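As a warm-up, study this chain.
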Amino acid sequence: MESSKQEVVFELPMTLRVHKDGHVERLIPTDFIPPSTDPITGVSSKDIVVVPESNITARLFLPKITDPNKKLALLVYFHGGAFVINTPFITPFHKFVTNLVSEANVVAVSVDYRKAPEHPIPAAYEDSMAALKWVASHSNGDGPEPWLNNHADFQRVFLGGDSSGANIAHNLAMTAGNPETGLGIGLLGIALVHPYFWGSVPVGSEADYPDDKSIINRDFVDRVWPFICPSNPDNDDPRVNPVAEGAPRLVGLGCKRVLVCVAEHDVMKDRGWLYYEALSRSGWKGVVEIFETQGEHHGFHCYDLEHEKSKQLTQRLAAFYKTD
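Now compare it with the structure written out below.
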């Protein structure tokens, strides 16, 4: 038994191993930072169960309230981690969202969705949509959560996320563009930070990207979707390649504004640019912008919040969330 557990049948370097006996070993250390009131920013947080039946949970963030009668923009945030690791409750994402809430003066709901491989795609999308519908249930001021009833402006709802979380934000916005979804609220915008988009054929600099340049290299990204989505292990699945042949047209994106953020040394950078360019020429009636951080890698902002470029990215996101 011990030997079969030790035999590795699949690995994402420095992220996850699957053993022959089915045991999943996550390699990135995790902690749990309890909800609190941040002494520096005054941002308060608390944890809630969104959908008890499937144990979907979230962390809510409320900025320091100076005018209790003023409604604030609402951000529904999805963390990154290749659909296999991380939660809203670990230090990097708790602190990042805390800083963003303070800078943007928004109410935020940071969603914890189920992870692959125990819960393969589409579980993460289903959980995230269920959480978004739960958020929408507060739009008339009579939902179960008083922070949303009392402080959220449902005319200014944004989705945001990084990496796989940005992928979720895009796919939820595509779903929201279908009137039959019955979401009950409109989306003002989505902000996609270092979005996890990919494809079977390299684009831009991907073909020349050295596999030893970073942990998240071509080989790493090539293997993620087939692993997390065994029902359709194709890197041209429209959910991971929104510009693939036969993908739903981006003109149907269900929001008015989009911000795409990329990093110079991210192997997925050119996918972000391709998405920006495809959306710009799709006939979609909204406004799309792109922001590139020079000299940085995928997800840098979550792990060095005091870095000047992390602060610049947070400020750019905050400016986006302040738009009407």
